[in-house]
Amino acid sequence: MTDLDRATALLRAAGLEEPRAEARALLRAVPVEQLEAALQRRAAGMPLSRILGQREFWSLDFRLNEATLDPRPDSETLVEAVLGELPDRNRAWRLLDLGTGSGCLLLALLSELPAATGVGIDLAPTAVRQAAANARALDLAGRAQFLADDWGRSLVPGFDVVLSNPPYVRTAVLASLGREVAEHDPRLALDGGADGLDAYRALLPQAVRLLRRGGLLALEIGFDQEGAVEDLFRAQGLRALACRRDLAGRPRVWLARSGTEQARRALWRAAADPT
Questions:
Q1: pLDDT at 18
Q2: Separation of alpha carbons 73 and 178, rounded Å
Q3: What is the CATH number of the domain that holds 72?
Q4: Are 10 and 62 within one domain?
Q5: What is the residue range of 92's domain?
Q6: Would the N or C end of the chain have less CB density within 10 A of its end CB?
Q7: 139/202 Cα distance (integer angstroms)
Q8: Is the pLDDT assigned to residue 268 strictly greater than 50?
Q9: 159-164: strand order across its sheet
Q10: Sign of the dihedral through C-alpha 126, 113, 246, 203
């Protein structure tokens, strides 16, 4: 029996859906002396991307660490949605990614927008360092800056696009998530509070403050949060545009535009002085 056959058999016995493809990936990436340990970790439920330390997203390779969410193909819906709202791809757009993690969303957009620049914010310094390293590896460091910050509170306004894939899982649901998510993705990137909306409530006032007039907001949402997030948009004076579906037909990304200048100034003052 070859190493590939043996590895495939072990992963098939663990109930994995694509045992041969994953066995082949491990054989390519892991030294022979480390293969057995890697196979055991995969059979125990550790995602292949965590074992390899990287994930492909938007046809780009992103290194991961313990503080970064593992990017999923569904999140590419956000990249597609933003690009669809930016007809001039050669314009010098200014982008802001709140809760950037590995930097995959911001860097995917910068790879498609050659004159754009962007800032990625994350509460976890370890994630910020990984995002910056990914920018260097993709030759995008000259147009991307990554900072440790709380929803961009230290930034000044003037962004054309604010985007985010915030934590939106209800706290009570976290334990019921699949092992690959619940045991290996950082809780900080998943836990959205009792109703899953805490992060939206925190980031929306800052997004309104930071967007230029008429600027674009793009947020990933949970499959059952379409109406709730739209209500939060209205409360912040945002003009909801459309909720984009992912490939499975589920609500995935809400798009909105910043409102009137008068509303923006009022919300700006409120965000600057929440007391």
A1: 87
A2: 16
A3: 3.40.50.150
A4: no
A5: 57-272
A6: C
A7: 32
A8: no
A9: 144-148, 117-122, 94-98, 159-164, 211-220, 251-257, 239-245
A10: positive
